[in-house]
Design goal:
Blueprint: H1 2-6, H2 15-27, H3 39-42, E1 50-51, H4 56-65, E2 72-76, E3 82-87, H5 88-93, E4 102-106, E5 109-114, H6 116-127, H7 131-134, H8 148-157, E6 162-167, E7 171-177, H9 178-193
Parallel strand pairs: 1-2
Antiparallel strand pairs: 2-3, 4-5, 6-7
Helix pairs in contact: 2-8, 8-9
């Protein structure tokens, strides 16, 4: 009876409330720490990554081509060492795209009156920009043994939708998305409700 009253689902609680609820259940002895999963159990391992010498144009193609790609793509070295991460937002907000030159048409004699030089300079900048020029280098990560509680707190308090999972020394082994966290919450809730 009590377990039915205390059960949670990913649809009924925000993640932050779910973390508080899980801590409460653990303190009351209603669930054991061993029943709460860790990063290795929920992380995605088949990752799309890019190398440091990937150009912005190549990166845009990757984001547009692959519908399953998360908003965040890890940037790695040959041995899967994490250098940083790059997002769609990095492309959009870091002012990489050129502004078109202003054009005036007077009596069918069109002419660029301002900005053509600036446009060409900006366009060249875009062609010569690599992911390392716009990526985030200081990335908040977890290890494969990080608990679901800690992962949820990082996702909520840090406003981080995608969390890389690394092993020592800084080797990328997976990524956890908000969807993965919600699935884990749903599974934990189901196990708790069923008395497992």
């Amino acid at each position: 009876e009590d377990s039915e009253k205390l059960s949670i689902t990913s649809n009924s609680f925000p993640i932050h409330d779910a973390v508080i609820f899980m801590v409460y259940l653990r303190k009351k002895g209603l669930i054991m720490k061993s029943q709460i999963c860790v990063a290795r159990e929920i992380m995605r391992q088949n990752l799309l990554t890019v190398k440091a010498d990937t150009t912005i144009n190549e990166l845009i193609s990757i984001f547009l081509r692959d519908k399953e790609v998360q908003d965040l793509i890890p940037v790695v070295e040959e041995d899967n060492k994490l250098l940083g991460v790059v997002t769609m937002g990095d492309i959009l907000y870091k002012k990489l795209y050129p502004y078109g030159p202003q054009y005036i048409d007077v009596i069918d004699a069109g002419s660029y009156y301002t900005g053509y030089g600036r446009y060409m300079t900006s366009f060249q900048k875009q062609l010569n920009t690599y992911v390392t020029d716009i990526m985030t280098r200081h990335v908040r990560c977890v290890t494969p043994d990080t608990s679901l509680e800690s992962i949820m707190l990082l996702a909520v308090d840090g406003h981080i939708p995608n969390i890389p999972v690394i092993e020592k020394p800084n080797t990328l082994v997976g990524i956890i998305t908000r969807r993965d966290i919600l699935k884990a919450l749903e599974n934990t809730s189901s196990n708790f409700s069923n008395g497992n």
